Amino acid sequence: MADTTAPTKSLAVPLTAFAVGAVVAVLVGVFGKIHDPTLQGTTTLGFRTVIDMKVVLATVVGVLAVLQILGGLWIYGRLGRPAPAWVGPAHRLSGAIAVILAVFVAYSCLWALGLESGTLKDGEPVGTRTVVHGVLGCAVMGAFVVKAAAVRSRRAPGWFLPLAGGLLFALLIAAVLTSAGWYVSTRGWPTSG
Prior knowledge:
By secondary structure, this protein is mainly alpha-helical. Helices cover 67% and strands 0% of the residues. The chain is globular.
């Protein structure tokens, strides 16, 4: 006979998820700091430069993040009408695509540029926007871990999933705005070849 009792809710789930997420964020940052940045091992995916590719993909990730929030609100009945059956699978698929693209962009960022702070090799100071963007990018990687734990756990308190999703959304949008948003506003949309 199957056990039909609801799992006991536990603060251990969010506390553990936040601790593991913080460790992931720090490890990504440490890698970015100690790695010698190079364009070798990166790709442009047919764009003119790695930066152009990252701008376009980061913008796509930002759009997918907005769709994720809207989809989540719809699934949980916060938009005033029930979500059709297709919304759940579309939400999961767009979330998976957003994660894959964000990890690809983060890899390209860390591998090609590293985590910059202090002064550059030419003695120029690294700008505040660059430092903030790098820290946000590392935090996004940790927030992905927290969100994955929130989605998968049946023992987490009810507030954990919306908090994890909101945190990931806020960090992701801030990272996109300090990179792709900044680039487009100062240099325009990337052009082909």
